[in-house]
Amino acid sequence: MQSPDLSIVVNGMKFENPFVLGSGPPGTNARVIGKSFDLGWGGCVIKTISLDSSKVINTAPRYAKLRSRETNEVVGFENIELISDRPFDVWMKELKQLKKDYPSKMLIASIMEEYRRDAWHEIVKRTQDTGVDAFELNLSCPHGLPERKMGMAMGEDPSICEEVVGWVKEVSTIPVWAKMTPNVGDPTAPARASVNAGADGISLINTILSVTGIDLTTLRPLPTVEGYSVPGGYSGQAVRPIALRHVMEVARAFPNVTISGIGGIETGADAAQFILLGSHTVQICTGAMLRGYEIIDELKTDLGKIMAEHKFEKLADMVGKSLPYFTTHADLVARQKAAKAERHHGNNRDADTWKGAIAKETDALTTN
Ligand SMILES: Cc1cc2nc3c(=O)[nH]c(=O)nc-3n(C[C@H](O)[C@H](O)[C@H](O)COP(=O)(O)O)c2cc1C
């Protein structure tokens, strides 16, 4: 078999590979985005921008880390960083130049605005004039911005998601992905609202609200800013199981919507799992911060190996392949009962009888 084809077309955009830098420090300006494209990343979601960066004031420190007791490796990462504090006009020039220099790389503008139709219209119109390929709407940053009724304050309320995505779709001429917060009980509710309003894709997850810990010398919470703290957004390896569950739920609920999977991806094997649960692209933020942009070679090689082992010739063949294996608890119990009975009676029932037995057990359990 030839080496597998890692490229994929998503909402009409051709990604040469599914590896996209997630919005955050890795896409903080044109210089580093250009460097990542040179190294082979398929695309980049830029650090979230807004019209008036003068309102964005960051603190130092703004990160806290959770380390493995055994290896001291960073397994969880908390941040209280806000969106980009770089001027909007500077960003517009940089995006235009990046598209000129890297026409085949997918450049996605993450945008956020206040809860006003005219503000969203303005940011969409001005940003799409630069030639960017798509928008990702940050409806999900869990810290700082919600105090201004932005970010997660929008994304946790399905009716606001629907309204804001609708405003964007009124003027957008390029694909629109809505980025979801995991800080909700039912991840399909805000996703459904966004899809109803015309979102072309769903990105998930943003960070999980968290308190990384307390400094036992000072008794102050981390990260400590002049003695005080706020809950921040948790990311990195520790969030991967939660992110996989959110992706799975949304992929099962909306089979026709493209998904960009995010959360704790650091290796090709991590990425493969997101793809198997329905992601068309994968985004990496903390992994690139901790391990460097250079991991892209390893990511591509390892994903290619996994595809080859399972005889997936192209990436689209792999998307969602593990989704059919989620079911209800009642069905698991029925399957197990049937399998045990099968083992008990010896392997003398043919496959059809066995299937019939499962169906009967499931019926009995669900009607009781
Ligand atoms: C330091 C930091 C800054 C971030 N800034 C943004 C941002 O500006 N906009 C956004 O949509 N997500 C932002 N994120 C969230 C990431 O894009 C991503 O959704 C999340 O961290 C989970 O993925 P990861 O485990 O690969 O980091 C940020 C994450 C980190 C760690």
Explain briefly what this protein structure is:
By secondary structure, this protein is an alpha/beta fold. Helices cover 39% and strands 17% of the residues.
- Describe the sheet with the most strands: 8 strands, parallel, barrel
Q: How large, in whole angstroms, is the Cα Rg?
A: 22 Å
Strand content: 15-25%
When the domains are counted, the total is 2
CATH superfamily of the largest domain: Aldolase class I
Number of continuous helical runs: 13
* CATH fold category name of the largest domain: TIM Barrel
Question: How are the SSEs placed, and which strands pair?
Answer:
Blueprint: E1 8-10, E2 13-15, E3 19-21, H1 30-39, E4 43-45, E5 63-67, E6 74-79, H2 88-101, E7 106-111, H3 117-128, E8 134-138, H4 152-155, H5 158-171, E9 176-179, H6 188-196, E10 201-204, E11 208-210, E12 214-215, E13 220-221, E14 232-235, H7 240-253, E15 258-262, H8 268-276, E16 281-284, H9 286-291, H10 295-309, H11 315-318, H12 329-344, H13 351-367
Parallel strand pairs: 3-4, 3-16, 4-7, 7-8, 8-9, 9-10, 10-15, 15-16
Antiparallel strand pairs: 1-2, 5-6, 6-14, 11-14, 12-13
Bound molecules: flavin mononucleotide (FMN).
Residues 22-25, 47-48, 77, 79, 81, 83, 110, 138, 141, 179, 206-207, 235-236, 239, 262-265, 284-287 line the site of flavin mononucleotide.
